[in-house]
Specification:
Blueprint: H1 26-32, H2 41-54, H3 68-74, H4 79-92, E1 97-105, E2 114-124, E3 127-131, E4 146-148, E5 155-157, H5 159-166, E6 171-174, E7 180-183
Helix pairs in contact: 1-4, 2-4, 3-4
Length: 191
């Protein structure tokens, strides 16, 4: 969460579409079906889940140069496509939204356990809220990297992981030695 008074850039800057995030054709119609009188986290979660349902995760179908509308028409995508489509919908609906990228730690994969990942932050009422369209279920397993800050075990991690804990999800930490520990949110930095 980043309250507006702590932000140095107006959220209105994030209403501008880009060539990759412009809503066109069927995507515009799709976005319109989610227009509401007021913007709420639950309404945007509904949109996030609808984008995920409309574009199931399928690697290798799109590439980095595809627009939101092209990905939407293909009916498949990866996290970048999910983020672009969600951004296009938000901006079409006059909801400031921005693209966020980072890394997921996926220890159960046979390839590299670290993968690049994309999600979106949207301005809801008075702060930025994270929406991970690829991992659309707020109770789903979400991964992120972190560092241990203090001897008593305080960890700094990604905002989308912290949001899972604030939304009633169970938080657990996995360490390199294979051990795990339950975790809880003790604070968040608005920056």
């Amino acid at each position: 969460d980043e309250p507006h008074e702590d932000s140095k850039v107006s959220p209105l800057v994030f209403l501008r579409s880009t060539p990759l995030t412009r809503a066109e054709g069927n995507l515009t119609e799709f976005a319109e079906s989610y227009r509401r009188r007021t913007v709420s986290v639950s309404a945007l979660r509904e949109l996030s889940e609808a984008v995920h349902a409309r574009l199931p995760f399928k690697p290798g179908v799109t590439d980095t140069h595809w627009t939101a509308s092209e990905a939407f028409e293909s009916g498949f995508g990866v996290c970048q496509d999910h983020a672009h489509v969600f951004l296009a919908c938000c901006r079409h609906l006059c909801i400031p939204a921005r693209y966020v990228s980072g890394y997921l730690y996926l220890p159960t994969t046979s390839d590299s356990p670290v993968a690049s990942h994309a999600w979106v932050e949207a301005w809801v009422v008075d702060r930025w809220r994270s929406f991970d369209i690829t991992i659309s279920n707020p109770q789903a397993s979400v991964s992120g990297s972190g560092i241990i800050l203090t001897e008593n075990g305080q960890i700094l991690t990604n905002n989308h992981v912290a949001e899972l804990g604030l939304n009633g999800g169970s938080l657990a930490v996995s360490f390199n030695d294979g051990s795990t520990a339950r975790a809880r949110i003790v604070g968040r930095d608005p920056l």
